[in-house]
């Protein structure tokens, strides 16, 4: 303890003696990051202080950097990335990837938001009830809730509840679906119309399929597909509970669907992804993903997206639209995939119809994307208080 106290005093003295933050040596970093076994785990207090000092320097680099040391901005940034990875428990690859996506101050807001669970949200099933009636029924049962926001007519956000929200009589009767706010967005963007033919390529657990069904008022036909037969059980269960009668459930590899069926008015592709937008839900993403995982996802997404386009009917009088979305924030799984589809098929991007969210990237590092990528939308936990999400909408121009 005495040794630790002396080290801490040394560090504080170091900071007090000079207004300039002195970059620690490799040995000092190692001592606080990987202390000997006899001592405590990484000293997060020291790492946090070092991060704060480093951020102050980077905010005013010319005046605050260590004088006469010849240290570059990159050296300070590398230490900051290393400290952030240690403090928030990310692997180096993912921290490096995220730091390329956001300015420094926003990066820390994103990391902080990932430490907090997103609010519990539910979607009113308008096939069976109205939002006002549902809200009143749940309030009577001891649920504290509010409308989700001006952008949704069916969403409710739940602050706390004296009853389990997934087991109320209203839930069992199919009056609502437990559904993240971000997963309402792709269906709103797709805007399915009555009497259309719609394909949901990766449908499990059925939240988006059932939302589409209620917007179509149970008319037309929805094909709800998923490659995982086990997960289809939840789709069937939810569709029954919610009173959806216009849906067919099937079990194909999405990449083979165009050979089995096509001619759809609208297609929804919520593609399998790395999950970098849902870290608060699945913290294992912080350490389990590497570059191979991201590229593997991107390769599969490209195959699925081209198939989704091939399933569409460009001659549809009401549709010919496709929504591609992921719960990832990486450019490799979003803009890169969309840009690839624009080059490979006769499609164009159209506005999503969502009046909030950040514009997609049209340029990222050395990459240049089609200018229409500004029509895509990105959603983040730190700005929109929902899971990280990407939404794009295509119009097919010819078969």
Automatic annotation (TrEMBL):
Start and end residues of each SAM-dependent MTase RsmB/NOP-type domain: 110-397
Residues binding S-adenosyl-L-methionine, per UniProt: 202-208, 226, 253, 270
Alphabetically ordered keywords of this record: Methyltransferase, Nucleus, Ribosome biogenesis, RNA-binding, S-adenosyl-L-methionine, Transferase
Cell compartments where the protein resides: Nucleus, Nucleolus
InterPro entries: MeTrfase_RsmB-F_NOP2_cat (IPR049560), MeTrfase_RsmB-F_NOP2_dom (IPR001678), Nop2p (IPR011023), RCMT (IPR023267), RCMT_NOP2 (IPR023273), RsmB-like_ferredoxin (IPR054728), RsmB/NOL1/NOP2-like_CS (IPR018314), SAM-dependent_MTases_sf (IPR029063)
NCBIfam families on file: nop2p (TIGR00446)
Protein name, entry field: NOP2 nucleolar protein homolog (yeast)
Originating species: Petromyzon marinus
């Amino acid at each position: 303890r005495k040794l630790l106290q002396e080290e801490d005093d040394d560090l504080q003295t170091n900071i007090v003696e000079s207004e300039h933050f002195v970059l620690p040596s490799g040995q000092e970093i190692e001592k606080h990051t990987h202390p000997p076994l006899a001592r405590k785990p990484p000293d997060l207090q020291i790492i946090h202080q070092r991060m704060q000092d480093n951020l102050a320097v980077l905010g005013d680099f010319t005046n605050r950097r260590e004088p006469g040391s010849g240290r570059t901005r990159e050296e300070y940034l590398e230490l900051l990335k290393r400290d952030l990875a240690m403090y928030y428990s990310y692997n180096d690859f993912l921290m490096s990837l995220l730091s390329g996506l956001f300015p420094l101050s926003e990066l820390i807001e994103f990391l902080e938001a990932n430490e907090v669970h997103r609010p519990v949200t539910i979607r009113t099933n308008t096939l069976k009830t109205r939002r006002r009636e549902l809200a009143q029924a749940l309030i009577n049962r001891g649920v504290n809730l509010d409308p989700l926001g001006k952008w949704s007519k069916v969403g409710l956000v739940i602050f706390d509840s004296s009853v389990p929200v997934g087991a109320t009589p209203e839930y069992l009767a199919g009056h609502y679906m437990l559904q993240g706010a971000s997963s309402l967005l792709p269906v709103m963007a797709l805007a399915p119309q009555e009497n259309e033919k719609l394909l949901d390529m990766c449908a499990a657990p059925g939240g988006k399929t059932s939302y589409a069904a209620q917007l179509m008022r149970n008319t037309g036909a929805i094909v709800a597909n998923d490659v995982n037969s086990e997960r289809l059980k939840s789709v069937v269960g939810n569709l029954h509970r919610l009173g959806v009668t216009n849906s067919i459930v099937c079990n194909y590899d999405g990449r083979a669907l165009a050979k089995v069926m096509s001619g759809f008015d609208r297609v929804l592709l919520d593609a399998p992804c790395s999950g970098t937008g849902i870290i608060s839900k699945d913290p294992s993403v912080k350490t389990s993903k590497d570059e191979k995982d991201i590229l593997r996802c991107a390769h599969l997404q490209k195959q699925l997206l081209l198939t989704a386009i091939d399933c569409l009917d460009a001659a549809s009088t009401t549709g010919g639209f496709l929504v591609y979305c992921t719960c990832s924030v990486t450019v490799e799984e979003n803009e890169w995939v969309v840009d690839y589809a624009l080059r490979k098929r006769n499609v164009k991007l159209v506005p999503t119809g969502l009046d909030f969210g950040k514009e997609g990237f049209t340029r990222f590092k050395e990459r240049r994307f089609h200018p229409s990528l500004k029509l895509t939308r990105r959603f983040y936990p730190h700005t929109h208080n929902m899971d990280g999400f990407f939404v794009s909408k295509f119009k097919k121009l010819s078969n």
